[in-house]
């Protein structure tokens, strides 16, 4: 017998990739159910060449569902994920809503699959910018320890959903085809839908992803800080992030500076990263080989290069990390969690409901 798998947010930038990842998955799947809001209910999507009608998400949607992949925003997960667990499903949640809940494992399978063993029905998938940094840094942490991380991101617009992709394409056309000055382009969504002002992304770089918190960092930046500590199970790692949106459609790039606990020889760092599952070393500057966003699109891997010693700090190392935010940053990491749950015999109903039904 195979599983019934539900995708909540199936019509979105991540949800559509989840369908592709399920098509290519090793999971035994009998049936796929696709869910959305009323806007897309009734629309027909394809799974393995079969037409599947998109259903409206309700409290009763999860009867008979074994695995529910959520990617429809935090409020949708907050409302419906507990009903999915109550109905006997295991939820893999791609939103930020449950990530810091102590009853919820936050998992990058290559890094902390062991955290799945204690799940209570909901597993959180980390933020896209955090996931790729974890894949690059875990092999370094394992061998030499990590004292601090300073990261600057160059993030693709698809990280803000399908509407941000549409907005970017429209703005670029207005500038290139109609001769509009980028300053005069009208923006409705970026830097983020939840803030008061919106700015053009065409020919621009916006140092704001998500809204600001009380300490002048954005939520996206604080996600990188808090999620790193939770995934690596070490609150002593110092993490500061500056998250920047750039006019790239898919694949996030990151300039990562780390200080290790022990001195780490650069050639050994490269070898450790090259040997780590999910990481691909692209580092040959003599031949101009380094990770690039355009090459990462469509791949499940995380590409790491430009690995070099800091000029002054003995334990300081710089690197450049690139991955497809919609795949390893979201859809693939979620389906990979589901595959790992299956391999470990952890796809099963939860005895005690630890999450509030709203
Ligand atoms: N994009 C990324 O790189 C990325 C990475 C990691 C995590 N995430 C997280 O994943 C989630 C989805 O992101 P996205 O980029 O795919 O967004 P998106 O393109 O805007 O898609 C949103 C999806 O959610 C559905 N939805 C909206 N309101 C709903 C409701 N009330 N009930 C049921 N479904 C509803 C939409 O359905 P309709 O078609 O009916 O509107 C659509 O399928 C967000 O929480 C985001 O933070 C995104």
Bound molecules: NADP nicotinamide-adenine-dinucleotide phosphate
Task: Please tell me how large the radius of gyration is.
Answer: 20 Å
Task: Describe the strand arrangement of the main beta sheet, using strand numbers.
Answer: 5-2-1-6-7-8
Classify the fold: give the CATH topology of the largest domain.
Dihydrodipicolinate Reductase, domain 2
- Strand pairing plus helix content: what structural class? alpha/beta
Overall number of strands: 14
How do the SSEs run, as a string of H and E? EHEEEEEHEHEHEHHEEHEHEEH
Total domain count: 2
| CATH level-1 class of the largest domain | Alpha Beta
Unreliable runs: none
- Principal-axes shape call: globular
Write structural notes for this entry.
The protein has nine helices and 14 strands. The chain is α/β, with parallel strands linked by helices. The strands form three sheets. It has a six-stranded parallel beta sheet, with helices on both faces. The protein has a six-stranded mixed beta sheet with strand order 10-9-11-14-13-12. The longest helix is centred in the middle third of the chain and has 17 residues, at 128-144. The radius of gyration is 20 Å and the shape is globular. The protein binds NADP nicotinamide-adenine-dinucleotide phosphate (NAP). Residues 8-15, 36-37, 39-40, 57, 71-74, 76, 94-95, 128, 158-159, 161-163, 325-326, 329-330 line the site of NADP nicotinamide-adenine-dinucleotide phosphate (NAP).
């Amino acid at each position: 017998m195979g599983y019934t798998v539900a995708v909540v947010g199936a019509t979105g930038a991540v949800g559509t990739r989840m369908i592709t990842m399920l098509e290519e998955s090793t999971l035994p799947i009998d049936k796929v159910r696709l869910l959305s809001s009323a806007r897309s209910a009734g629309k027909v999507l394809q799974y393995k060449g079969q037409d599947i009608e998109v259903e409206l998400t309700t409290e009763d949607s999860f009867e008979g569902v074994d695995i529910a992949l959520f990617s429809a925003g935090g409020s949708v997960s907050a409302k419906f994920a507990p009903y999915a667990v109550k109905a006997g499903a295991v939820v893999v949640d791609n939103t930020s809503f449950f990530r810091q809940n102590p009853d919820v494992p936050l998992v990058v399978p290559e890094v902390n699959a062991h955290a799945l063993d204690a799940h209570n029905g909901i597993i959180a998938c980390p933020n896209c910018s955090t996931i790729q940094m974890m894949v690059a840094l875990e092999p370094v942490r394992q061998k030499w320890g990590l004292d601090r991380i300073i990261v600057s991101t160059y993030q693709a617009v698809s990280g803000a959903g399908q509407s941000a992709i549409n907005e970017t394409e429209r703005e670029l056309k207005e500038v290139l085809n109609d001769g509009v000055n980028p300053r005069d382009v009208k923006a409705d969504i970026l830097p983020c839908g939840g803030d008061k002002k919106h700015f053009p992304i065409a020919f621009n770089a916006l140092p704001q992803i998500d809204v600001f918190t009380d300490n002048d960092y954005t939520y996206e930046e604080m996600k990188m800080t808090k999620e790193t500590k939770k995934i690596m199970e070490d609150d002593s790692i110092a993490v500061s992030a500056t998250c920047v949106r750039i006019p790239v459609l898919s694949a996030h790039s990151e300039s990562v500076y780390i200080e290790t606990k022990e001195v780490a020889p650069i050639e050994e760092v490269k070898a450790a990263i090259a040997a780590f599952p999910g990481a691909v070393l692209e580092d040959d500057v003599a031949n101009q080989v380094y990770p690039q966003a355009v090459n990462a699109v469509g791949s499940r891997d995380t590409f790491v290069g430009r690995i070099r010693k800091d000029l002054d700090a003995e334990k300081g190392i710089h690197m450049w990390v690139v991955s497809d935010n919609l795949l390893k940053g979201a859809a693939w990491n979620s389906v990979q969690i589901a595959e790992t749950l299956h391999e470990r015999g952890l796809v099963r109903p939860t005895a005690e409901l630890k999450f509030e039904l709203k």
